Amino acid sequence: MNGFILLTLSAFVAEGNRTHLSRGTSRNSECVVGSNLLSLIEGDSVTLKSDVTKQGRDKMLWYFNDTLIALINGDPSKSCVYDGEGGIFRGILEVDFETGSLTITNIRPEHTGRFEANFIRSKSSGTSQSLNRNGKCDSTKVIKKMINIGDTVKTFSVTISESYNVEKKQEWEKNSVLSSGLVAGICVGAGVGVVLLVAAAVLGVIYYRYKSSKM
């Protein structure tokens, strides 16, 4: 198709065991072309960037596992973000209409998979055709990727890992300390009880001998 250049960015999200972030942090991680790995935990926010210069008539299509989740037309009023299959992206997608970047807030394990951005740059001097002709956004619609649009396809791969929840680890460590204290208390109590029993036995023997010597 003449008049278009297609750039594809693929971000592979996978569950893993590496992270330096904590749940509820205000940090926003950026996934940029050329990055190798971004480790996340549940509740983080991640921004996926194509790292391209978007012009007014350029378009960006974001896919998750070949399902369209964001369509950015030259006209923002004819753009749309989608909930995805099963509504897993409902209310957590944010789009930058100037750069075409996609932000996923409160990322969860079900977001493990492949994110792909198709960047369509119009080189024609005429008016570019909108990909959403009727201008109505049906966020519940599930649209599968059929074919690539454009002449040139370039792919960048980024891996994002979700790691062990730090809060759960801290809670587990806290409970472990409490459990250790409880066990120690039980052991101390048992030890004191044994000492008292031994002392009572010794006193009993002394008293018995004392009574015997008087008889």
Question: Could you list some keywords that capture this structure?
Answer:
7-stranded mixed beta sheet, 4-stranded mixed beta sheet, about 220 residues, 2 domains, Immunoglobulin-like, disordered N terminus, transmembrane helix, membrane, about 30% strand
Short description:
The chain is of the alpha/beta class and 215 residues long. It contains 1 helix and 11 strands; from the N terminus they run E-E-E-E-E-E-E-E-E-E-E-H. It has 2 domains: 4-164, Sandwich (Immunoglobulin-like); 169-215.
Overview of this protein structure:
The protein has 215 residues and is an alpha/beta fold. It has two domains: 161 residues, Immunoglobulins (Immunoglobulin-like), CATH 2.60.40; 47 residues. The chain contains one helix and eleven strands. It has a seven-stranded mixed β-sheet with strand order 3-11-1-10-5-6-7, with no helix packed on it. The protein has a four-stranded mixed β-sheet with strand order 2-4-9-8, with no helix packed on it. Strand 8 and strand 9 form a beta hairpin.
Helix/strand layout:
Elements: E1 4-15, E2 28-31, E3 37-40, E4 45-48, E5 59-64, E6 67-72, E7 80-81, E8 93-95, E9 102-104, E10 113-122, E11 155-162, H1 166-214
Parallel strand pairs: 1-11, 2-4, 3-11
Antiparallel strand pairs: 1-10, 4-9, 5-6, 5-10, 6-7, 8-9
